[in-house]
Design a protein that fits this description.
About 25% of the residues are buried. It contains three helices and five strands; from the N terminus they run E-E-E-H-E-E-H-H. About 35% of the residues lie in helices and about 30% in strands.
Amino acid sequence: MVVNNCITFNHTLIRIKLFYTFEILKTKIMTTLTVQNLKCGGCAHTITKAVQGIDGVTEVSVDKDLSTVTFNTETDEIIEKVKTKLAHLGYPEEHADNTILHKAVSFVSCATGRLTE
């Protein structure tokens, strides 16, 4: 957000107008999530594509060896959206329940990722 403003200083002999502009920058939050069921490049491709599709998410990277998903965002609300999306794809967070449904969905997500790589 950019804010333009003006300050006027009045003195009996001098009148000064000072114009200034400042910008309020949003802070990016770099987040790394450790997920379950991440096994190959197909999984990584599916995750990358899905997380990049969430508004407000930038710079997505997936490390299949460490089972991590790293991304930048501006709000905790978007982080929760990413966690939900990952769970729906079959890649719940490290300490979350990893049901048979998660495992089956991750298998399908993996196969889809391999086909679209």
